[in-house]
Design goal:
This protein is α+β, with helices and mostly antiparallel strands. Helices cover 52% and strands 15% of the residues.
């Protein structure tokens, strides 16, 4: 059995071996090194970061802005080497901000303000514009009842109303064609029991 050499004794953490020592240069004596307990050093840094979080955040952002190319290159490499970490963080963000993401996508895709969506939803009493039923479909990820879907014209992208999933899929299946829907109605009338 190999004996480990005790290099220093910390008052807080006891005997220290070489791997537990942190060496740094002294400001008052250039060229000389001071040996400190690595655990004490980490604890001191953690306390400092917690106490000065706002100041450090500002200085970090300033450095990132001044060194944008260097920081972006580092960030790209970090994302490549840690894909699971970034994937999990993105999923967590999406779960926590689902409402915000949905409403911002309405603005981006259909130029509809969240307030306009809320007005239409209230005018429809949270019911589908066609079947007059509430949405019952649950989202796969969150398990919550889904929102009514925004129906729009696929040619003009004009907003028409809010529909449940079933009605929205039905209209889409008939390719928004009134003639095709009339044919379907006629077909159902002919084959009614």
């Amino acid at each position: 059995m190999k004996m480990t050499e005790i290099v220093k004794i910390c008052q807080k953490h006891g005997p220290l071996i070489r791997e537990q020592i942190y060496e740094h240069s002294r400001k008052d004596r250039p060229g000389s090194k001071t040996k400190k307990c690595r655990l004490c050093h980490l604890e001191k840094n953690t306390r400092y970061r917690e106490k000065n979080r706002a100041k450090l955040s500002v200085s970090t952002k300033d450095w990132q802005n001044k060194n944008r190319e260097h920081y972006n290159a580092w960030a790209r490499e970090h994302r490549k080497s840690n894909p699971k970490k970034y994937s999990e963080a993105q999923k967590k963000y999406r779960r926590q901000n689902a409402e915000k993401i949905y409403l911002s996508s309405l603005k981006y895709l259909y130029d509809i303000e969240p307030s306009e969506y809320q007005k239409v939803l209230a005018a429809q009493n949270d019911l589908c514009a066609i079947c007059k039923q509430p949405e019952i479909r649950r989202s796969r990820t969150a398990g919550k009842v889904s929102k009514l879907m925004l129906d729009h014209c696929h040619k003009t992208a004009k907003f028409r109303g809010l529909l449940c999933h079933t009605c929205n899929i039905g209209i889409g299946s008939f390719k928004d064609s009134i003639e095709l829907m009339e044919e379907a109605i006629q077909y159902l009338k002919e084959h009614k029991d």
